[in-house]
Amino acid sequence: ELKVEQNPLFLSMQEGKNYTIYCNYSTTSDRLYWYRQDPGKSLESLFVLLSNGAVKQEGRLMASLDTKARLSTLHITAAVHDLSATYFCAVDMRGTYKYIFGTGTRLKVLA
Amino acid sequence: DAGVIQSPRHEVTEMGQEVTLRCKPISGHNSLFWYRQTMMRGLELLIYFNNNVPIDDSGMPEDRFSAKMPNASFSTLKIQPSEPRDSAVYFCASSFGGLMNTEAFFGQGTRLTVV
């Protein structure tokens, strides 16, 4: 069974600080996705990581993938209040089209 | 494209009633997913279809839940009879499943309250 775990589950940080969210998964997969969800809203795709060593950056967010370690990171640089949201990683099992989501990390950036 | 469209956005029903949730995926996508989101259990994959065929329904919690995809542009998730513990936000998502698999795009969700 594919399991996807994120840590931390909750993160409260000051504006201007850096932090990293981790996503570990339990089975072979070459593709990993990061999503953002604002309260009461749907999930919005942030990054698609399609191979080992892939790195994507958008603004203050940078995502990377290490398929050998089965680990992805979402790094936040100089956080701002607008980044407050819940962040999910998702993995699709090799050979299927089935997306399994992590537990989510609820990020709160304090002004 | 308008994205994934779900209806209704909100549904309040009494215990024991039948509930039908609807989803129109993005045109050209061939995979469709139904997820349920609650505080306690997070995002759970209920069922997914590929080319209108149910591939994996192992996440469907009970026989009270059923899903259909009669064609490439429409899917339903039915709960009969509904129970208060079914209260959750139900998301439909679609993707292009294949060698160049895309990320899943989500609808706005249906917030279901069973009283």
Give structural notes:
- The complex is a heterodimer of chains A (111) and B (115).
- Chain A has strands at residues 4-7, 10-14, 19-25, 32-37, 43-49, 55-58, 61-66, 71-76, 85-92, 99-101, 105-110.
- By secondary structure, chain A is an all-beta fold.
- In chain A, strands 2, 4, 5, 9, 10 and 11 form a six-stranded mixed sheet that branches.
- Chain B is mainly beta.
- Helix content of chain B is 0%, strand content 54%.
- Chain B is built from no helices and eleven strands.
- Chain B has strands at residues 5-7, 10-13, 19-24, 31-38, 42-50, 53-56, 65-71, 74-79, 88-95, 105-106, 110-114.
- Classes of the chains: A mainly beta (111), B mainly beta (115).
- At the A-B interface, strand 5, strand 9 and strand 10 of A face strand 4, strand 5, strand 9 and strand 10 of B.
Question: What's the quick description here?
Answer:
The complex is a heterodimer of chains A (111) and B (115). With 111 residues, chain A is an all-beta fold.
Looking at this protein, list some descriptive labels.
heterodimer, A: 111 residues, mainly beta, 6-stranded mixed beta sheet, 5-stranded antiparallel beta sheet, B: 115 residues, 7-stranded mixed beta sheet, 4-stranded antiparallel beta sheet
State the helicity of chain B in percent bands.
Answer: under 10%
Low-pLDDT parts of chain B are none
Indicate the structural class of chain A.
Answer: mainly beta
Average pLDDT of chain B: 94
Number of strands of chain A: 11
Whole-number mean pLDDT of chain A: 92
Note the gap between the termini of chain A: 41 Å
Beta fraction of the residues of chain A?
over 45%
Query: Which value, in Å, is the CA radius of gyration of chain B?
Result: 13 Å
The rough form of chain A would be described as: globular
Assembly of the depicted chains: heterodimer
**Structural class, judged by helices and strands of chain B?**
mainly beta
Fraction of residues in β-strands of chain B: over 45%
Could you state the order of secondary-structure elements of chain A as H and E?
EEEEEEEEEEE
Order of helices and strands of chain B: EEEEEEEEEEE
**What overall form of chain B do the CA principal axes indicate?**
globular
